[in-house]
Write a structure and sequence with these properties.
With about 220 residues, the chain is an alpha/beta fold. It contains eight helices and seven strands, in the order βααβαβααβαββααβ. The structure holds zinc ion. Zinc ion binds next to loops.
Length: about 220
């Protein structure tokens, strides 16, 4: 286990790859441990997740993708969609997760943006804020966008731009692990590639992933 680590906390089993996949692969290559926590198995809310895919399949796919990225762990919290906050409370997950985060002392936590149109993505953002607020050593929290390329709120928030030119291909390879959603991944992939390309061009890189710093004391 490395001294240095980052966490990705997201709603569904492919968000960690769609959002900060290239960044995660880059950090892993640099010897930073990447841990992923996934709120739910994502049965309902992703429009591109169609058909009845078993939970086991989803877990397997997420683990396979994580292996390609070079991540250290994927943890599913198994919360019911639409009820993340309730589930966090009922299962005493705030206490458990905060304990783990206090032990591991991540440098950064990546999570969904508040601009995200999906309620479960925004709920995850708020849960991360609540978790970090009471941590002993506070990590920097960064948000990523999947659907909304143009951030409507807080455009002037400090940014983190990660050059993912060398790991963009790894991200694509990891995304293709989500076979149960293959059709949908194929649909969303060109968009993700375009965003990463545009963010790259804007910053003089081939590909880049862009994040915004989250002010955890702000409601
Ligand atoms: Zn999602």
């Amino acid at each position: 286990m490395s001294e240095r680590c980052v966490y990705i906390i997201c709603a569904h089993s492919d968000d960690q790859t769609l959002g900060p996949g290239g960044t995660a692969a880059k950090y892993a290559r640099e010897g930073i441990d990447v841990h992923t926590i996934i709120m739910s198995y994502g049965e309902f809310s992703h429009p591109w997740m169609q058909g009845h895919v078993t939970v086991k399949t989803r877990v397997k796919e997420a683990q396979k993708a994580d292996k390609i990225i070079g991540g250290k762990s994927v943890t599913f919290l198994g919360l019911k969609e639409g009820e993340f906050e309730k589930g966090m409370q009922d299962k005493h997950l705030y206490i458990k997760l905060r304990k783990k985060l206090n032990e591991r002392k991540p440098e950064k936590i990546f999570t969904h943006s508040l601009n995200d149109p999906l309620p479960d993505h925004r709920a995850t953002h708020n849960i991360v804020k609540k978790l970090v607020k009471k941590m002993r050593t506070k990590p920097a929290v960064y948000s990523f966008d999947i659907w909304n390329v143009i951030a409507i709120r807080k455009r002037n928030r400090p940014k983190l731009v990660v050059d993912t030119s060398d790991t963009f291909k790894i991200k694509v390879k990891a995304l293709l692990c989500f076979k149960s959603q293959r059709l949908s991944v194929y649909q969303i992939l060109p968009r993700i590639a375009l965003y990463n390309l545009l963010d790259g061009i804007q910053h003089g890189m081939k590909f880049a992933e862009k994040f915004r710093r989250v002010d955890i004391d702000e409601d």
